[in-house]
Every structure is written in structure tokens, then in C-alpha cells.
Amino acid sequence: MDPDGSVQDPEDKEYSSVCVGREDDIKKSERMTAVVHDREVVIFYHRGEYHAMDIRCYHSGGPLHLGEIEDFDGRPCIVCPWHKFKITLATGEGLYQSKNPKDPSAKPKWCSKGIKQRIHRVTVDNGNIYVTLSKEPFKCDSDFYATGDFKVIRSSF
Ligand code: FES
């Protein structure tokens, strides 16, 4: 609480970038985890690009750093090891397959549920990897497991 009695809205917080490791290391391991401003994230290195997102799956808090990366509809996704939800690395969208009930023989189509997993920015400077937390002012489903009462760092995995 501020001296004037106001409470700062966490959404307004300015986040500085935080160094989470060395480029050489993540290029070997292809993923790493880090705590950035009290928020646990996973960073993937996939096909020459870096992606960071909340570590706990938006569905029920599964450990995304233990999932496999696969392409769906040409989009690289992390597959949550708990219930196999697919989340795009680039945008945090949840993907699902839709079937046309009027045409059961038609091939199922991949559709997006919208952004479900909060994506954070990754930058590289002088061989160091930095993560800057997203300040996007929308309510993202993965916030539920990244903040508040349901936030559990590491000990739950
Ligand atoms: Fe990730 Fe259910 S917790 S799919």
C-alpha cells in the first residue's frame, strides 16, 4: 500500500528485463526455467528462436517445461504433459481440433481458443539471455497459476 493509502495495481508494474542464463547453455539444453520478478517462466530455444511463457499450464497448472514440442497446423506448440493441451510457442494460443458434426468424414480442423498462456519477451545481449515479463493488460488464463494463492514455485513439480 502506498503512503496515500492507494494500492498499486500489479498490472501497472514496470518490469525490467532479467538475465536468466547464457545463450550457449540454452542452445544445448533447448529449454531452461527461471524465476523472473517472482514469476516462474520457461524459456524454449526452438529452430533458432527463443520463446518464454508462464511455466504452469493454463488448464490446471501442469509443468510445461516437461512437455514435448510438436508442430500442429504448421505451428510449433508445447504439449502439456498432464492432459496434452497444445499451446503455440509464439503466441500462447490454445489449439484444439474441431470436427464438423454434419460431415463426420471431413478432416478435423485446427482452431484457436485465443491466447491462454502468457508469453514473455526474450532478448539476447552479449551472449546473455534476458526475459522481460509481459505487461499486456489483458487477463490471461495462465495468470491464475502464476500469481496469487495458486502460485507455487518449483516445489509442486
Ligand atoms: Fe496442462 Fe491440463 S494441466 S493440459
From TrEMBL:
InterPro entries: Rieske_2Fe-2S, Rieske_2Fe-2S_sf, Sol_Rieske_ferrdox_dom
Superkingdom, natural source: Eukaryota
Cited CDD domains: Rieske
Rieske domain location: 17-131
Alphabetized UniProt keyword annotations: 2Fe-2S, Acetylation, Iron, Iron-sulfur, Metal-binding, Phosphoprotein, Repeat
Names of the cofactor(s): [2Fe-2S] cluster
Entry-linked Pfam families: Rieske_4
UniProt-listed PANTHER family: FERREDOXIN-RELATED, RIESKE DOMAIN-CONTAINING PROTEIN
Protein name stated in the entry: Rieske domain-containing protein
Species this protein is from: Ictidomys tridecemlineatus (Thirteen-lined ground squirrel)
Lineage of the species this protein comes from: Eukaryota, Metazoa, Chordata, Craniata, Vertebrata
